[in-house]
# Entry
Amino acid sequence: MTFFIGVDLHKTQFTVHIRTEDKIETLDEIKQYPTTEAGYELFLERLKTFKEIGAKVKVGVESTGNTRFLRIK
# Structure
């Protein structure tokens, strides 16, 4: 299974929408995270759960260039 993850990145938060071949998240399931180290860590932990079940993870990020970059370890 492949998880297709769309990220809309802003200065103070980022919005994440996930879909697979079988499921598309509803508006109530879409998650928002703060653009802080803690917010990025929560997002990465979520991705880790998908990889632990053997899924492929593909992420696309939309940004207008007004955000800072975070180096992910």
About this structure: The beta strands are 2-9, 13-19, 31-34, 56-62.
